[in-house]
Design brief:
By secondary structure, the protein is an alpha+beta fold. Helix content is 49%, strand content 17%. The longest helix is centred in the C-terminal third of the chain and has 19 residues.
């Protein structure tokens, strides 16, 4: 049975549910292929290109994992214990 997106990418799920949003793809304003934003603006920008969408999502998951740990750790841990 396939895993849900929330199981594979729990930090992306948390981010989009409670904190901000993500953008995937190119626009005329930025360099990155994938990015995370909140109401204050861009929180993280990925590389310009990735070999696969999976690798872009993995990079975002890792970045949001660090961000949540540094900025929202207590809330995240309490909800997931």
């Amino acid at each position: 049975m396939a895993q849900s997106l929330e199981q594979v990418y729990p930090h992306i799920a948390r981010w989009t549910r409670d904190i901000g949003w993500i953008e995937i793809g190119y626009d005329h304003y930025g360099y990155s292929f994938i990015r995370a934003l909140d109401e204050g603006g861009v929180v993280w920008e990925g590389d310009h290109a990735y070999p696969t969408l999976d690798q872009a999502m993995d990079a975002l998951e890792e970045a949001l994992s660090r961000w949540i740990e540094e900025n929202d750790a207590g809330t995240w841990r309490e909800e997931n214990e």
